[in-house]
Amino acid sequence: MAIGLTAFVLMLLYINHEESYDTWSSELKSVYQIRERHSFFTPDNKEHLQESNDSRVANLIREKVPQAIAVTKVDPDWDFRTGNSVKVGNADPIIVNRMKDSDSSFFHVFKYKFLQGSENNALKAPKSVVLKQSLAKKIFGEGNVLGKVIKVVAWQGDEGTDLTVTGVVEDPQTPETAGFTAIMRTGNKDKDPVNPTNSNYCQVYARVNEGVNPELLNQTLKKVYVDYKKSTAPLKKIEYKSYFADGKYLQLKAIPLTEVHGNRPFEISWLEKLKPVIAICVFLLLVSIINFVNLATAQSVQRAKEVGVKKVMGAYKQQLIGQFLLECALQSIVALFLSVILIEVLLPSFNTQFHVELSFWHNPNLFNMLLQLFGLFTLVTLLAGFYPAWILSNYNPAAVLKGNYSGSLKGIILRNLLVVFQFIISVTFIIAIIVMQLQTNYLNNKDLGFERSNLINIRAGYDQNLVDKIKRIPGVQYVATTTQIMGNAFNVPEQIEYNGNKISFNTVTISMDALSALGVKLLKGRIFSKEYKQDTINTVVLNEAAAKLIDKNPIGKSYKIADEDKMLNFQIIGVIKDYHNEGFDKEVLPTLYKVTTLGGTSSTNNLIVRLNSDKNAAIIEKIKAEWKHIYPDFLMEYTTLDSAFDKVLENNKRFMSMIVLFSIVSVSLSLLGLFALSTFVAKRRTKEIATRKILGASNIQIVGLLNKTFLVLVIIANLISWPVAYIVVKKWLNGFAYRIDLPLYPFFLATVVSIIIAVLTVSIQARRAALANPVKALKYE
Predict the structure, then answer these.
(1) Phi and psi dihedrals of 496, rounded to 5?
(2) Residue (of 57, 450, 509) closest to 252 by Cα position
(3) What is the DSSP string of 166-180?
(4) What is the pTM of this model?
C-alpha cells in the first residue's frame, strides 16, 4: 500500500504544482491575457489564436474597451532566444534568462510586492529596470541596489543599453505564466511601428474591473477589433474581405490568467499530458488496495477463532467491523508515513524527470496537501478495510469453533475478479512498454533528411565578418544560415500562383551554403551554387511535399508571387528530400527554400556550422575565441543538432521511462496479489491437498492442480487486456505523424511473459503446500 500511495501522492504534488500557476496574488483574478488570431509563427502556417499580438492591440484596448483598467505590452518567451548578456561595471558578462522588455504599465497590471522602490515609480522613466530579488542578489549581493546601472546586450551586434535599477520585487512562491527575472523599459514597447504594413509582436495583458463578465468582455473585444481591422485595411493596401477568405475570420479574445498555463497555443495542455499518468497512479493505488484486501482475507482463517470467541462472548457485528476498520486505519497510517519517506527519497529523481522543483514539506500549498492526504487516507481505509471487516464479522461462531471455515469463507469470485483486474493492468503495461520501445527505436533511427552529426547551431544572425573568421578555422567545412533548423524553426507562410492555381507554401530563407551544410539529399535538379548568379535573384528549391503540389517534374517550371503592386517570377531549380526541422508529431510542411530577399525575408537567428573533424570540442573553443574577439560583451550560445534531436524526443523518452518504472511496480504488486491469493487458496484447500497426497497424488500433480485455477484467471485477464491495450497504445501512436504499424507480437509476448510469471509465483506457494505433512492437516483439533 505504501508503494501505491507513493505513486499517487507524487502525482498529487505535481497536479497541485500545475494548478498553482498565477495564484500568488488574489488580484490576478482580474488579469486577462489577450490573444489574437493570425497565421504568423504558426507551425502549420494556418490561423490560430496566439499569445503574440500586434502591439497596436494594446493601445486599441486602452482607448476602446471601457472595462480595461490597465494594459501592458511585454516580450513573449521566444524559443530562439535564451537570454540577454548583462554586464556590471568591468565584470565579465553573464547570460540572464527571461529578461523582458515592457512598457510603463507592467506593474499596474501585475501586482508584485516591492522590496525596494515602488509600483508607481518603478518603470516611470525609460531606460529603467526592475529586478526579481533572486537576480538582484545574484548580481549585486545583499543591500540597496536602487540607482545602480547594468548594461544589457540583447544580441551579438548590439552596442548595449545602460539601464538604471528602479525596483526589486519579491519572487512569488508559486509559478508564473508571465514569469521573468527582470522587467526592462528600454522604450521599444512605448511606440508602435509607423508603417501600417509592419508589425511588432508582443504579449498583451489587461487588468479589468472586478466582476466583469468574460463573455461580454470578449464581445466588446471582437467588435472593437473588427472595426479596427476594417478601418486599417486600406492603409495596408489589402481588401477587407481577404480577412474572411478560405474560412478565415477575425478574433481577439481575453483569456483569464488563471487559465493560460493550462491552455497554451500549439501545445497539449498539462492536464491532457498528465491523464495517462493519473490513470497509471490510480491503477497502482487500486492494485495496492486489491492486494491489501486479498492479504487481509487470506489471513482471515487465522482470525476466524478470534471472531467466533468474541461473538460467543456477546460482541456485536458492528463492534467487530469497527475493530477491523480501526486496524486497517492504523495500517493505512503506517503505509502513509512510509510513502512520505519514499517521496522524500524519490523527489529529486522525480523533479529531474519532470523538470520541476517540487517539495513536500516546503510546499506553499502544504495545508491543502495535508487535507488531500487526509481524504486519501479515509478513502483508502474504507476501500481496503470494509470488505475484510465485513467478511470477518460474518463468521458463524459455531462453525469456526468446530474448525470448519469453508462455509464462512465467501467472496472467492470477487477475489478472482480482483486478480484478473490486476493482471489486465500489468499485461497492458507490458504491451505498452514493448510498443513504445519499438516506436522510440523507429524515431531514433528515422532518416531525418539531413546529417545531424558534426553540426552545431549558434544562436546568432549572419555576420559576414564572423563567418569569414570561422571559415578559416581548420576543421570547419561550412558556415551558413537558415530560418528552419531543428530546435529553432521559423515558419513564414507564402501563397504562390502556378498555372492559374493558388497554392500555400512554407517559405524558408537560407544562405547559399545552407543546404550543403545541412547535408540534405538532392532528388532532382540542383541546389544553390555561387556559380549561378540568378540563384541570388529568383530561383528556389522545393522539398518533396511542395513538389507534389506543383508538378511531377517541377524542375525548370516557374511560379509567381504578389509583392506589393507587382508580380515576381521564381524558377524551380531543384527538389530535396523532406527533412525534419520540428518534432515527429506533425508532418513536414510543403516548403520552398530561397536565397533571395525578394518577396520578403526574415531574420534567421541560426548560424549553422558543419565540422569535418573528430576534434569538435577544440574547434568549438576556437569558434568561441573568434566570437569573443568580435563580441566581447555577448556570450556565444550554441547547441549541437544531436542535442536538438534528443530534445525533440525528450517528452517521449520521459514518458517511456515513467511507463517502464510504473510497469515494474504494477507487475510486482500484481505478483504480490497473486501470491496472497495463492496463499489463501492453499490454506483453504489444505485438507483436500492432504487427502489427495494420502491417496497417492504426487507433488507435481498438486502443484499443477493449484496452478490450473490461476492460469485460467491470467488467460482471461490477457484476453480482456488485448483490446484495452490496443485502444490505449493506438491512441498514443496517433500522436505521431510518423509512426510504426502496430504489430501483433507484443500482445503474444506479453501473454507468454504474464503466464510464466504467474506460474512461477503460484508454484512457490503450491510447492510449499504440497510438501506439508498431510497428517498435521487432517488431525482434528
Answers:
(1) -110, 165
(2) 57
(3) EEEEPPPSS--TT--
(4) 0.80
